[in-house]
Amino acid sequence: MDTPLLNATDIRQRIWLELQRAVQDRHHEWRTPVLATVGADALPQARTMVLRHADARQTALQFYTDSRSPKIEELEAHPSVALVFWSKRLSWQLRIRAKATVQRTGAEVDAVWTRVSQTPAAGDYLSAKAPGDLLMDETSSNTSGGSQHHLAIVTLQVQDMDWLELARTGHRRAVFTADHWEWRVP
Ligand SMILES: Cc1cc2nc3c(=O)[nH]c(=O)nc-3n(C[C@H](O)[C@H](O)[C@H](O)COP(=O)(O)O)c2cc1C
Questions:
Q1: In whole angstroms, what is the distance from residue 49 CA to residue 28 CA?
Q2: What is the 90 CA–ligand 1 centroid distance (Å)?
Q3: Residue 149 pLDDT > 90, yes or no?
Q4: pLDDT tens, position by position, 50-91
Q5: With a 6 A CB cut-off, is 32 part of the ligand 1 pocket?
Q6: What is the DSSP string of 97-124?
Q7: Ligand 1 within 6 A of 63 CB?
Q8: Cβ–ligand 1 contact at 45 (below 6 Å)
Q9: Ligand 1 contact, 71 CB (< 6 A)
Q10: How many angstroms does the Cα of residue 71 sit away from the middle of ligand 1?
């Protein structure tokens, strides 16, 4: 879809609108961005995550994960992350750099767990084994666990956004920080 008349303010607002839509709409292409971190071995790591919350006013995004997954230790050691979103429908790529914080306990985690525990996804956070653990043999693949959940919330405070629009009439690219924006060569 062409968006010829969008100016920088419109683009910033529209980016946040699409992020919020992606949280609500399981078919939105921005629902499953790739989150890149610095691995425990100081090499890059990246994985797909489901976007759970987008707060335009706080410029923050949230994801849920198992608190025992390797990415949690990576985030605590190196909170700087990058996210990549691509939407064919919009012809938009969005690259975000952000600082991560992890909540393993507290009122917000309790509130999210109360909601998630009513859904089929609850099992993702109840397994006896931690994500990435070795499966010792093919018969020990039963990872169903107890009642203790391992849900953690990862909150990303956005630092900058690099927006790229592909269009036959000419690609456009703009970089946004909290209080500044500029056009860039695509
Ligand atoms: C479509 C899709 C959505 C996913 N969503 C999540 C998610 O929301 N949270 C999560 O922890 N892992 C999610 N995963 C699994 C991760 O990509 C990854 O395999 C897992 O979290 C282990 O990552 P780590 O070893 O870097 O901690 C998803 C995978 C796919 C394919």
A1: 13
A2: 24
A3: yes
A4: 999 999 999 999 999 999 999 999 999 999 999 999 999 999
A5: yes
A6: EEEEEEESSSHHHHHHHHHHTTSGGGGG
A7: yes
A8: yes
A9: yes
A10: 10
Structure tokens, 153: 């919330």
Name the residue of 38, 50, 72, 143 whose CB sits within 8 Å of the most ligand 1 atoms, as the mutation to test its pocket: 50
Domains of the chain, earliest start first = 8-127+148-173 (2.30.110.10)
- Identify the helix (H) or strand (E) that includes residue 159: strand 151-165
**Strand, helix or coil at 19?**
helix
Question: What are 60's two structure tokens?
Answer: 């923050």
> For residue 9, what pLDDT is reported?
87
Whether 166 has a pLDDT exceeding 90, the answer reads yes
- Ligand 1 binding pocket includes 172 (Cβ within 6 Å): no
Asked if 86 and 67 count as a contact pair (C-beta separation under 8 A), the reply is no
Measured from the Cα of 131, ligand 1's closest atom is: 22
The two tokens of residue 51 are: 């976007």
Q: Which one, of 106, 104, 126, 102, lies nearest residue 116 by Cα?
A: 126
What CA–CA distance (Å, rounded) separates 11 from 77? 33
- Whether ligand 1 lies within 6 angstroms of the CB of 132 is answered as yes
Please give the model's pTM, rounded to 2 decimal places: 0.93
